[in-house]
Sequence to fold (338 residues):
Amino acid sequence: MDGYVRPIAQTDPARPDGAQVLAGGWCWFDRVELLHRGEPPSVLAASELPSDILDRLSRPRMPLLGLDWTRPAIMGVLNATPDSFSDGGLYAAQADAIARAREISDEGANILDIGGESTRPGADTVPPEDEAARVVPVISAVAAFGPPVSIDTRKSAVAEAAVAAGAALINDVSGARYDPAILDVAARHDAPVCLMHSPDDPKTMQQDPRYDDVLLDVYDHLADRIRLAEATGVARHRILVDPGIGFGKTLAHNLALLRRLTLFHALGCPLLVGLSRKSFIGTLSGVRRAVDRVPGSLAAALAAVASGAQVLRVHDVAATRQAVSVMVPLMKTGGDLG
Fold:
């Protein structure tokens, strides 16, 4: 089928006969939006889709990290850095980082994402040996008591050291563009990898970002990254994708991606979304300080859940867990849809 197929996600209890479960999760769809570059979109009944496309949209994603994707998972952020945009410096000391990891674990995070290099707009690159020195001792400690650990890095050497220390997931904001050898690390250790869209280095990514069609450009980029990962030996069912909200994107770009977020389910991978405390929330709400953007972050997170996003990457784990715990019973879950 030509063009791009976006399932129109629903969570209403009045599910029509023949409606499909979206990615084995809590949303359903009976229509899709067909998108073409330079043409108006159109709507088609899901029953008219070719079987291979329908299967990719509806089949359950294979379990990873002990998660079966039948409800939203929460990835808690731990920045062991001096300069991250929201909490830089708070957990730069190893003891503080480990203490914060215990808090995040107790708050109910399903995954703990540990990073040693800020990727905020304008950030400088950190030498890999310095980055590894920040994260490896923390990962070693956390792997003994916490949820599965994700290493947030663009560098193969850091990923190698982190996996050896106990990290179970490689989360690369560059989508393996910065250091393609990071995919060799994932393949060699059979580690799942999250590939994010970012058009440029953090230092320059917010300097007048432009796209022909941001939604379709990001989709094509991620599809290309998946193909590269598979060619390197990483199985598709061990790949997560992230559209990279706030990375090389304007407010209009971010909103365009979030409004049609369900398109990315057509890639056939679990969908991770990082919205927490980001500048677009401050722009929309008028809240300047990142730490004060929790209510806006929760609104954005629940919008992503309504689009079937399987993983929410957040700073405020307890608040997000509470919001998701209230929302999930209001939706038809994977079990209810059987």
Remarks:
- The two ends are 28 Å apart (CA to CA).
- DSSP finds ten helices and 13 strands in the chain.
